[in-house]
Amino acid sequence: MTDAIHEGGCLCGAVRYRTTGAPNDTNICYCTQCQKQTGAPMPAFASFPLDRFEMIRGEVGAYRASDFATREFCPRCGSALFWRRDGGDYVSISLGGFDDPSGFPPPKYEIWTAHRIKWLDTIPGADSYPGDN
Questions:
Q1: Which residues, listed in sequence order, are joined to residue 19 by a DSSP beta bridge?
Q2: By C-alpha distance, which of 10, 38, 27, 26 is closest to 99?
Q3: Could you give phi then psi for residue 44, rounded to 5 degrees?
Q4: Distance between CA atoms of 129 and 109, rounded to whole angstroms?
Q5: Whether the Cβ atoms of residue 20 and residue 28 lie closer than 8 Å to each other
Q6: For the chain, give me the number of helices (H) and strands (E)?
Q7: Which tens digits make up the pLDDT trace of 73-106?
Q8: Is the pLDDT at 2 greater than 70, yes or no?
């Protein structure tokens, strides 16, 4: 997966992006902000260093739900796309936005499990954290 190229985009196709190589990690976030933004009980992400991420097409909108990160989305269709920590050197990309999300490894960890929907089980083999890791 070190030479892999992964492409993805939003629901309407206005935004497209590309990553290269293996992700730093894949994870599940159960925080209420991620749940609200995506409408999903267990949003999944793949994180890549910024130097292995490029925008191919389109512009994103941004929203700050916290004082330390920005959430980016397609302003046309509303697809949740990226999460970026202020001053960070990586981008967390919504796994479902990739053209082939099944090509990624299973989640390495799950965070904010204190907010996990009660009927969801833990992810086998993933480290679990009640808050941030």
A1: 6, 53
A2: 10
A3: -115, 150
A4: 8
A5: no
A6: 1, 11
A7: 999 999 999 999 999 999 999 999 999 999 999 9
A8: no
Which 3 state secondary structure label does DSSP give 117? coil
To which residue do tokens 């082939």 refer? 100
34: nearest Cα among 4, 8, 6, 73: 73
What is the per-residue pLDDT for 3?
83
What does the pLDDT look like over 12-69, one tens digit per residue?
999 999 999 999 999 999 999 999 999 999 999 999 999 999 999 999 999 999 999 9
d(CA 48, CA 117): 27
Answer whether 117's CB lies under 8 Å from 36's CB. no
Which is nearest to 25 in space by CA: 48, 8, 3?
48
Structural domains of the chain, with CATH: 5-128 (2.170.150.70)
CA 129 to chain centre: 17
> What is the residue whose two structure tokens read 């941030």?
132
- Cβ burial of 52 (10 Å; 0-12, 13-18, 19+) is middle
